[in-house]
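Let's do one together. I've listed all components of the complex below, 269 residues spread over two lines.
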Amino acid sequence: MSTTTSVIDRLRARVGVDGPAVTATVEAGHLKRFVDAIGDPNPRWRQEVPPTFLVALAPVSLHLAEAEEYGKGWLNGGNRFEYFAPVMVGDQITARGRVADVYEKEGSSGNLLFIIFETDYTNQKGDLVARLRGTAIRR
Amino acid sequence: MSVQVGQELPELVKHPTTRQLVQYAGAQGDFYEIHYDQAYAKSVALPGVILHGLLKAAFLGQLVTDWLGDRGRLSTFEVSYRGVDMPGHPYRCRGRITSVDGANVGLEVWGEDENGKRTTVGTATVEMSS
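Okay, and this is what the predicted structure of the assembly comes out as:
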């Protein structure tokens, strides 16, 4: 139990702290591989990115090695996207992620650790184009 | 086309395969073994390899953008994963309009497994063009 508590405390200490920014260019080839993988044939996605593409440009969550001391596996609890401007092929997107919250909950088959991540995506002009909030769960 | 509360979106049925999961893992860059390694998935108490939550989100995103077309823009899109889905089983994406407030339209979306269980639930808001 003390190990569990200290893992949570260490993760809580990172709440609100930005991780390293990741910058990537939206490449037509990558976009094509992504839309082929999701099976969406809409020709619009030859130039513009579909609603979930930004997760493929930068890691969805910061790699929190210490969180893996808790439980035995990761689950994705949910994702929330807010969109402010379209993202097109050639755009240079910078993702800045942080831990927004950490809490433990009692599940039907043992305790679960919830880690809430937030990522802001800005383009080459410095405009905020999207924001993602995700819930990662250790079980 | 008028937009009214209660109206259902044309449904979208996907037929995910293990091949698609590997394709998606590569395209997203998510190489967590539960999406392609059967033995690993079972070792963490899953019934076998499962769909990426974000792949199911992409399916529901397509449901919304196929319906919306060029009539407006997506403002928010949110999904919660309530259950696991496995390749080799159809995944049915559905949605309906829950609110209309001027140009702002609220939607409820969900993904069902072949037993009709809603394994993914979510919402979207769109701003219709005038």
